Amino acid sequence: MSQRTERRGIHVDQSDLLCKKGCGYYGNAAWQGLCSKCWREEYQRVRQKQIQDDWALAEKLQREEEAAYASSQGVQSHSQSTPPQQPPGHTSLGPFSKFEEKKTNEKTRKVTTVKKFFSPSSRSASKKETQEGKSPSPSISRHASFDTDQVSRDFVDFLKNLQKTGREIHKQCRAFIMNMSSKKDLSAEELSECVQDFYQSMADRLMSHFKGSSDSVEQVMDQVEKYIMTRLYKSVFCPETTDDEKKDLATQDRIRALHWVTIQMLCVSMDEEIPEVSENVDKAITDIIEMDSKRVPRDKLACITRCSKHIFSAIRITKNEPASADDFLPALIYIVLKANPPRLQSNIQYITRFCNPSRLMTGEDGYYFTNLCCAAAFIEKLDAQSLNLSPEEFERYMSGQASPRFSSSEGDWPHSGHGVTATNPVLAQLNHNLELLSGLSSRQETLMESARSLQADLLSWPDTVQREVNDILEKYPLEVRSCTVSAIDANNMDNDNLPPPLTPQVFAG
Amino acid sequence: MSAMRVDAKVVMLGKESVGKTSLVERYVHHRFLVGPYQNTIGAAFVAKPIQVGEKVITLGIWDTAGSERYEAMSRIYYRGARAAIVCYDLTDSSSFQRARFWVKELQNCEEHCKIYLCGTKNDLIQGDRSLRQIDYHDAQDFAEEIGAQHFETSSKTGNNVDELFQKVAEDYNDTAFQYMTAEETGVDLDQKKDSYFYSCCHNN
């Protein structure tokens, strides 16, 4: 680490370009001003020191963890009713945070060196360790990040319910992981065999322990798988001994080269113009991409299953009936082509090698996984025939000389009935949206127009009314007639017919 | 986990539009048993519990894409299957040819997989005998030759459908029993392995 502080900026001075050790060769800024040879020596020295430090720390951690576990178990077995005052993970938290500190220091170095530093060194370290007959390999705990720490803690918590058996399982799993870490140079297939053998023997033992209750066995096995594979993930996912990485790149390039494949060529019964369908398609794509971020084979499988369920929903919405395999597989192929999931081959290989086989071979997850394998195989082997194209057309599309989007208007391929917009669903959606927008804006304009004319109308309305009133007033000027007040009876025509008014009569008497 | 535990994998093979999906649909929705499978959105995978004697066996029924463009991948599908229902359309002789193809594939690749030959759309023939293109005895002879069970079913009327799947489950149950007895002799081997782990732990 000491060189880091001495590190200087790049100077143009000739003497600064030479190796700092003064060996006469040119140095390199990337090697902290040293030439390649001196850098290697220097680096080796520091690395050795670091390995030893790490190792010592890891051993300490391991011991503490073990002690914590044993003590928590001890508390459990002594008085089963009272729970342990402190979960075992807590005691190991302190050292782990120290460890994290170390890790961040390490992270400032280049990634490649970190990678280099893992593979050969841990092997030699573990060899040394077996000679000395010492227990935990540092390389295991070095992988421990927050995630793995959490998983171990969960695992221990889970096993606590199983009392003595739990301790036994924990012991065996640890032993197995250590055992595995000493086998780094085995081929992937051999590693897979080790893991599968372990699953098998563990399942058999659990089977006899639980007296044939396969549900409990499965539950424990799920936890065992989660624990083991989280720990082993880094060393066994896409290992250097295989050509998985090369295959990943090949598949990725292949999918990129097939960007022109349309939904119609694959005969997929999904109509992405229906918003709900395209929503499901997007979710399916997200799920399949998410697969790469999971560590446990079972979690990866869960991603595939979720993706498949979204595809099923999309097909069902389009077709209004439950989807069959004849609809599903092409749709999945289409999704994989659209998503171009990262490290597809590595993930498939990893699941195949390290997943608990009972799940993979029979269950629903297994079914969807198999379909994904088929989709990958189909994409790899895809040719003109599988898309109902002529070899010439296929070649032209592959070489980028033509695009189905343009030729479709000429009716070059079978499903071109929908015209240009139908060839690419995204483009179609875009066009559709544009149309909607232009429609909206024209309607907006009409509305404004009407508003303006309404305003004009309103303004002119009082005038019109005024004018009309004036006209009418002119036509029929107001004549005020003199009003003559007459007697009430004046208008009474039949005056004469009335009997004479009564006259008072005076009666003498 | 939401996923149902499945005992045996059963694949449906057959040419496109031969009625694989209908057969499964008919079988599963014929009797409405309470179970999580009713919520499955597609008919491509179904987990179906079946009563065999005193036991309940759950068959995982795998529908496959029948189109010829996926033929190269079909091997991936039937890997590890305990039973395969090879379907052909009684009114379509080409579908029987394709059935022969799958039978050959299965025999080459999956020797532990039991084969069930299933002629579909029996109801069409009941209506008009001249539609039949695959003679019953020809199919029967072929089935005997390959050591398979032979059924003629109709997903429309439900004729023979239950019998077919019941037979699959019963056969699985019988062979599974044999497996179990065979595994008991293998316990010694496992114990050795365990002692290996013990020694490993004690060294620590």
What is this entry, summarized?
Chain B: Pfam families: Ras. By secondary structure, chain A is mainly α.
Question: Could you describe the 3D structure shown?
Answer:
The complex is a heterodimer of chains A (509) and B (204). Chain A has helices at residues 2-6, 14-17, 36-78, 88-91, 93-107, 111-132, 138-143, 146-160, 163-181, 188-209, 214-236, 244-257, 275-290, 297-319, 325-339, 344-354, 357-362, 364-381, 391-398, 404-407, 420-423, 425-475. Chain A is mainly alpha-helical and 509 residues long. A six-stranded mixed β-sheet of chain B has the order 2-3-1-4-5-6, with helices on both faces. The two termini of chain B are 36 Å apart. In chain B, 45% of the residues lie in helices and 20% in strands. Chain B contains seven helices and six strands, in the order E-H-E-E-H-E-H-E-H-H-E-H-H. By secondary structure, chain B is of the alpha/beta class. Residues 31-40 and 183-204 of chain B have low confidence and may be disordered. Chains A and B meet through helix 9, helix 10, helix 11, helix 14 and helix 15 of A and strand 1, helix 1 and helix 7 of B. Chain B: Its cofactor is Mg(2+). Chain B: It is a lipid-anchor. Chain B: Interacts with ZFYVE20. Does not interact with the GDP dissociation inhibitors ARHGDIA and ARHGDIB. Chain B: Its EC number is 3.6.5.2.
What is the largest interface, and how many residues per chain? Answer: A-B, 49 and 44 residues
H and E string of chain B = EHEEHEHEHHEHH
* Range of strand content of chain B: 15-25%
With strands numbered from the N-terminus, the spatial order across the biggest sheet of chain B is 2-3-1-4-5-6
Radius of gyration of chain B: 20 Å
The amount of helix of chain A comes to 55-70%
Shape of chain B: globular
- What is the number of strand segments of chain B? 6
> Which strand-content bin applies to the residues of chain A?
under 5%
Please report the distance between the alpha carbons of the first and last residues of chain A.
157 Å
The radius of gyration computed from the alpha-carbon positions of chain A, rounded to a whole number of angstroms, is 43 Å
- Just give the CATH class of chain B: Alpha Beta
- What CATH architecture of chain B do you see? 3-Layer(aba) Sandwich
The SS-based structural class of chain A is mainly alpha
User: What's the CATH topology label of chain B?
Assistant: Rossmann fold
The largest β sheet of chain A comes out as: none
Overall geometric form of chain A: elongated
Question: What is the CATH level 1 assignment of the domain at 243-399 in chain A?
Answer: Mainly Alpha
